[in-house]
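Here comes just one.
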Amino acid sequence: MDSLYKGYPVGYLITWQSVGAHLKGGNVAAHQQILIDGQQRITALRAAVAGMKTVNKRYKPVRITIAFNPVTEEFATVTPVIAKSREWIPDISELFNATSTYRFVKAYLEANPDADSLAVEENIAKLESIKNAQIGMISLNDDLDVETVSEIFIRINSKGVPLSSADFAMSKIATYGDRGRNLRKLIDYFCHLAVAPHAYEDIRENDGEFCSTPYIKEIAWLKDDAEDLYDPSYSDVIRVAGLLGFSRGKASSIVSELSGRDPETRKVDESLIPAAFDKLEDALLQIVRKYHFENFILTIKSAGFIAADMIGSKNVLNFSYALYLRLRGDDTLSEGERKRIVRRWFVMSMLTGRHSGSFESTWEQDMRRIGSLGAAAYLKQIEQSELTDGFWEVALPAALETTSTASPFFQTFLAAQVKSLSRGFLSKSITIASMHQQSGDIHHIVPKDYLQKNGYPDRADYNQVANFALTETSINISIGNQPPTIYLSRILDQIETGELVIGEITDELDLERNLEENAIPHGIREVDAASYTDFLVVRRKLMAKVIRRYFESL
């Protein structure tokens, strides 16, 4: 407002003439313009100048009121102090909507008799002239193809926040009249409630239009949901819907479908638009259905991935969910077979990085081949080509040479331990799974302090994941900075005397089982600084063997 008042430029609005866009009320506009860039400015002007309400984070319509001081020529968001001050016009929309500017100015001067009347009249007139201010507009022609418009959209930054093709898809969905607006809300509310279930009451209270649709019933279950393994963003939902409904990986391709663009002729055919929205709606209703979503989560958890921080790639979850939903339409598969395929695909993707980099093309290729070969046959083909003996025996141990506990290889190792009900390092009964759900420590098998004092000062040396094991906090504290030669000798003494000093293991066979569960070589009892690097090499190979056995058991 201040820039407009001073005659400064406020940037261009960019619009696109959308062919066949649906208007509220069911009409179709031949030349409705979709706002590509400038939403925040338009919203601000509607709120400040026209006095229209905006929707806050709790989905409640609220007024954002802008005040103006005709004496100092300042703008401010109204506060209780400003609202009580006679010197301020507490709501500039009252001026823009006034029937008589003369009476408006007169009332202000009567309330402020000491003010310079000429300056006040001039400044209020200058404020009122904002409604005639010129704002630059760039209009993209309706003959531009949707991919070009999408690329333009993605390249534009709004207040420093890069826009995405998913934003464009959400905007396109909303242009399809009441149905499109409510489908967009279905996506938005599903994602919001997955993170903040308490927002359900805000939606019920403040969005009567959406709550009058059947869609509200489809997501009502989220008000009682506390699961956070997979909390998809609207971008994730768009991707899953694109794969499920259209077998398309790019959000811009989904926009093409919703625009009625024939993939064969590359021409817009408006008659294709209703069917495209039917496919989108069907896909979204499958995505948000409680039974589908919860069973998918259970499938991923049954593979040992029981916590969100074990999964570094949302794309792996997105594709796996789309695959699960797609397989539900295959009547030749039992539910058990579907879950087995999804589990193996998920873990294969974690280990191979299949959904990183230029994943969208890979997604489309995978969906096509799943359609032609069948999911089980195609998965087997991938496993035979990528998960070879060379991968398990050479590539995987090499990949475990990392300091990152977020590494998908280390997290898959932990998932393998969860699935096999392995116990924490040197723990008699506390499992890896329970430590994930409650509390546990990442323990240096050869302690960090010991290594730093004995020739390994670099973090890259002592923080190798092959030197990590999950254990109870109390055991971690009891070990302290003692090398394995000392703390394992103390445990052997504990086994002989029955006097507990580190953990609760009092049986030598149980100790051997515990070391095996944690992929720790039996020679750990002799490991010191001199043999530390050899220990890491052996343990990486043991960890890789654990992961291989785990994958083959899925």
